Amino acid sequence: MVVYRSMVPDHSGRPECGAGAGQLGARPIDIKAKDGTVHPVTGGMSVNESILKIPKHLKGEKHGGEAGDLPMFEFALTHLTEGLTYRVTKGTHGQLEPAMSMLLANYQALLCGTKPNWKEV
Q: What secondary structure, in 3-state letters, does 41-68 show?
């Protein structure tokens, strides 16, 4: 199974890592850290199993959206590394979440570590 996410590319053409909107990482509003630690089933980086179900304001015009030339990337869940898990939250929407309690910085590093496996579509 693959999941999709619109993200800003870096100089290499892969998603830019970070905790901002459109980056490869979880925003502070997506997962709450307590004392610098995040936990499973408490949120994570949003992804979708269907490009068609991604809201128009979150995808580029190439994919029927309203976000200019923002690229869409796909990620095969077979590339999930130890420490990350995928959880469906509603319909085709899901999150790449921490699989165990860990420091927020470590969780963000694990997400960024998936960068080579995101392919532009």
A: CCECEEEECCHHHCCHHHCCHHHCCCCC
- Do 50 and 9 form a contact (C-beta atoms < 8 A)? no
CB-based contact 54:66 (threshold 8 Å): no
Q: What is the pLDDT of residue 109?
A: 98
Could you tell me the pLDDT band of residue 3, with boundaries at 50, 70 and 90? very high
Spatial distance between the Cα atoms of 121 and 119, rounded to a whole number of angstroms: 6
Residue 71 three-state SS: coil
DSSP assignment of 1-40 equals -EEEEE--B-TTSSBPBSSSTTSBS--TTTB--BTTEE-T
**pLDDT by residue (tens digit) across 83-108?**
999 999 999 999 999 999 999 999 99
Region at 22 (left for phi over 0; alpha for psi -120 to 50; beta for the rest):
left
